[in-house]
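Whether sequence alone determines local backbone shape is best considered at the level of individual chains. In the encoding step, the backbone of a single protein was reduced to a row of integers, each denoting a local shape. For completeness, the protein is quoted in full, as a sequence line and a line of structure tokens.
***
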Amino acid sequence: MILDDELLQELKKRTTKGSKHFYEPFDLEDSIKLREYYKSQLNIPIITTSLNLYTPRMTLLAKEYNRIVIGDYGAYIECLPNQIQLINIKNKFSSELKRPVKYIWMVPKDGTNIKIYFQQGTVSYADYVVGRYYLDPNEVLIED
């Protein structure tokens, strides 16, 4: 599936900091197109079997995963707290947060630059669950 140029340009605008519509939900028709596109790009089952998630340096990030969440801004692997390997990840920023945030940005301790979201608040553009971890399926290695 291919997205049209107009929708791709709008997507790029909405993910640019300072944008008037920064991460605002898309209308229903565009949301459906975006989600179908992200789904068509997946190389991982939507609901887990027994697949583990690793960094490119083979550091274990999660033993299995819960599901794939597909929203207006991409597809993300959802891990439950008991699946994520906290011993192998850390907060990207060590300073105290000065305002409420939607997620805590975490990274693997092995130096790879994989963004791991620890969800702190709800959003209107995807079905993320507070207290769960999210990873981009294109950034991790998946093995059973």
